[in-house]
């Protein structure tokens, strides 16, 4: 597939990575693979209990005594697939496809976020033709589920005072700060009972949404399937308070905007025509609301045949009280953009994403990803959720909190990037703060004098099966990275104004 592509070794490394399942929590095999690769090159390797890797490569001839530079990315990927795809992320390789300049997968996430960083790292490890400074290469685990590996890693192992993070998805733009955040988990015990006489079972699906990253795509006015389902069900519950919820399940990752949600419920049989009309009208509302941003959004209703699907309807309905408080909580839960920055135009300052809903026999669970660049706004959002959950007798826990990465006025590494970019491509690089969590925040907090930038090639629709990566952008970013590393430490650079 990549034989005739410039810098084919990078894409071949990426293809090798794609053969090894490496969703969050399942990185051991890939970590061991990269470890063996580095050891085969006689490089110094440190692997911790979380399967984070720190690899050291000496500088090229004449550069051995230079200060080292840290290259950083993460090993795990978000596992999302289209409805009906048979792909098993625990066992199956990612099936790569190439169409012109775009590399993508067969109805699953590609894993360019952040597999391309691993591919770049392997190319740097094996490179013998370029003049490079001493390198430290840090590849972490669990980034997509709360920056877990970075939080676990012993940062005293790091010797470098400069770091290039390769977890950005916009070529020509250097990231200079990122948001902090936390996960909020909600759960409540359920009381179940036999459905009332005269009630019939129905399944409702909301599907076809684009989804996307809950930070970078949160301001693109895409639908959240969990919130839309909550709105639909709460509207029906208000019309018919005797409706009984069986289950509501949607979303895969807290940091991915949910594309699908399914609910099962029992409704009065004499209201079946009203249920169908309400579903039709809700579908019309979806088309109007998201026609320009999420045009494939759909709602579907199916009357269940329990005799043909006894396993799917093995749960009794929730009590009327449980149905009401869960739907009330979900309908009122904040979601999407909450505040915009008054300092940086277009920057989302605070947001939340109702990413996961799960219903078991006796427990209902929801997970929200909360992001923000202002500490007081994050605290205010947590307080809102505390109050809302308490009003509905739902328990709330805060976990996986991570710090933001604050803008640093003076950065020699950023100066170097801007100067090299101008020289290579004849135009100024962009600088951007993002509304997403990066591991940069953890390392900046642990090592206050660490000079950090984040760069990467063009990757679009990350965290969704539409994810695709530009081949030419991967090539240009590689040239830029090499040019930055090959430049002499003493070279004079001038930051753009």
TrEMBL record:
Xref: SUPFAM superfamilies: Zn-dependent exopeptidases
Single GO term (MF): metal ion binding
Signal peptide interval: none
Domain Peptidase M20 dimerisation: 207-267
Keyword annotations of the record: Cobalt, Hydrolase, Metal-binding, Metalloprotease, Protease, Zinc
Enzyme class: hydrolase
Coiled-coil annotated residue ranges, if any: none
GO cellular component: cytosol
EC number assigned by the record: 3.4.13.18
UniProt key word Hydrolase: yes
Keyword Ribosomal protein: no
GO biological process: proteolysis
Reaction(s) catalysed by this chain's protein: Hydrolysis of dipeptides, preferentially hydrophobic dipeptides including prolyl amino acids
Domain of life (superkingdom): Bacteria
Cofactors (names): Co(2+); Zn(2+)
Family: Belongs to the peptidase M20C family.
Protein name per the record: Cytosol non-specific dipeptidase
